[in-house]
């Protein structure tokens, strides 16, 4: 978490030549040129394919980046949790879809509050209990709420387990005057990091069969699926080829962490630049074989490959965790690189939860810090 004192110091560095390497560390850094190129490239892919983009904000948790995506044609944003949706909604983001099924009365009440000022707000459900909670809350408040039925496409994490269950939910939603059935969602998180475009396509084609069956059955029952939503960064090409989804939810393309770079290397789905790094600096050089930096376990989500130096002078070095507060960097031969205070930037193993460890982004162009942006939904896990 970035302290107020550190933020004030960083703000004073804005516009100072070379200031990218003077900000308080460890710091979460976004290369604006790369971020903007990634957002524009995904928007262009979607336009060519004729699909709608509702990018997933669980990656960046930022109204600033959601607005950038909207400028490039996105119709809204996806949020994993109601808390994320509340944080982004408070900053003006509209057209939010909460992709985790709402299952409790308390969450239903909060969703109705969001729908009150955003007629395009949507929430997913995968059980009759969730529908009942949302129905009661909507009727009590006199506010209509848009619902999407979540369908399990093979991951087994959320979603209705059968075509019949989907029809039951959609019918119940359509029967309520305060609920609006908008369509279905089918997301396979287990596909996103599969290596090899051909293998991903085969797996996704098989898994999306259930979603196609649900759509067909709903339409035959007279229920209109205005939206068929799902997909992600790693499944974009396959989703477009299959042609079932009308709306795609990619998120990680904005930053491209180690997991996605490793899985999608050489594929069209991986044709995005790494825009997110963690800046750290050397704080101890006494050991003969390594250097100690100030970015350890608390600076990264660790469920992925180790952070990798992207600063050219350290490209041959390896980075490992050295405790909660410290990182271990293999010692370069050049003594000038081993001095206290020397900076380097490293990649994020897993971007989404790494972002959640911070409160602000440091925005850079080249070597210059050009801005600081709040991570509005950091820590909003409820």
Can you offer a commentary on this structure?
The protein is of the alpha/beta class and 382 residues long. The protein folds into two domains: 4-30 and 272-374, D-serine dehydratase-like domain (Lyase, Ornithine Decarboxylase, Chain A, domain 1); 32-254, TIM Barrel. Helices cover 34% and strands 20% of the residues. It is built from eleven helices and 16 strands. It has helices spanning 4-13, 32-49, 63-71, 82-90, 105-117, 128-141, 163-175, 197-220, 236-242, 258-264, 351-355; strands at residues 27-31, 52-53, 77-79, 96-98, 122-125, 145-150, 179-186, 227-230, 247-248, 276-284, 290-293, 319-321, 327-330, 343-347, 360-365, 368-374. Strands 1, 10, 11, 12, 13, 14, 15 and 16 form an eight-stranded mixed sheet that branches. An eight-stranded parallel sheet has the order 2-9-8-7-6-5-4-3. A hairpin with a 5-residue loop joins strand 12 and strand 13. Helix 5 packs across helix 6. It is elongated and about 75 Å long. The two termini are 19 Å apart. The model has no long low-confidence stretch (mean pLDDT 95).
């Amino acid at each position: 978490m970035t302290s107020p004192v550190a933020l004030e110091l960083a703000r004073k560095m804005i516009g100072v030549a070379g200031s990218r390497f003077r900000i308080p560390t460890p710091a979460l850094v976004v290369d604006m040129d790369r971020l903007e190129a990634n957002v524009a490239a995904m928007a262009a892919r979607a336009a060519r394919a004729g699909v709608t983009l509702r990018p997933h904000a669980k990656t960046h948790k930022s109204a600033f980046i959601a607005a950038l995506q909207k400028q490039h044609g996105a119709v809204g944003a996806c949020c994993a949790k109601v808390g994320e949706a509340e944080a982004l909604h408070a900053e003006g983001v509209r057209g939010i879809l909460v992709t985790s099924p709402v299952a409790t009365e308390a969450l239903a009440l909060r969703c109705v509050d969001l729908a009150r000022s955003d007629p395009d707000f949507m929430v997913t459900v995968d059980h009759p209990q969730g529908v009942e909670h949302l129905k009661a809350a909507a009727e009590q408040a006199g506010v209509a709420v848009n619902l999407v039925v979540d369908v399990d496409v093979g991951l087994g994490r959320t979603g209705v387990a059968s075509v019949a269950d989907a029809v039951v939910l959609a019918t119940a939603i359509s029967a309520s005057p305060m609920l609006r059935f908008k369509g279905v969602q089918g997301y396979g998180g287990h596909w996103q990091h599969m290596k090899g475009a051909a293998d991903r396509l085969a797996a996704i084609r098989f898994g999306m069969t259930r979603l196609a069956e649900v759509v067909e059955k709903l339409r035959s029952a007279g229920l209109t699926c205005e939206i068929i939503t799902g997909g992600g960064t790693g499944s974009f090409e396959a989703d477009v080829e299959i042609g079932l989804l009308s709306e795609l939810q990619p998120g990680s393309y904005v930053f491209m962490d180690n997991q996605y770079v490793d899985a999608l290397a050489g594929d069209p789905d991986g044709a995005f630049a790494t825009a997110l790094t963690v800046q750290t600096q050397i704080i101890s050089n006494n050991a003969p074989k390594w250097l100690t930096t100030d970015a350890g376990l608390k600076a990264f989500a660790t469920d992925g490959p180790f952070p990798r130096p992207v600063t050219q002078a350290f490209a041959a070095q390896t980075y490992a965790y050295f405790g909660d507060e410290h990182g271990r960097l293999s010692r370069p031969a050049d003594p000038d690189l081993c001095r206290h205070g020397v900076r380097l930037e490293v990649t994020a193993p897993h971007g989404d939860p790494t972002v959640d460890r911070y409160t602000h982004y440091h925005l850079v162009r080249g070597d210059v810090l050009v801005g600081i942006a709040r991570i509005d939904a950091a820590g909003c896990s409820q």
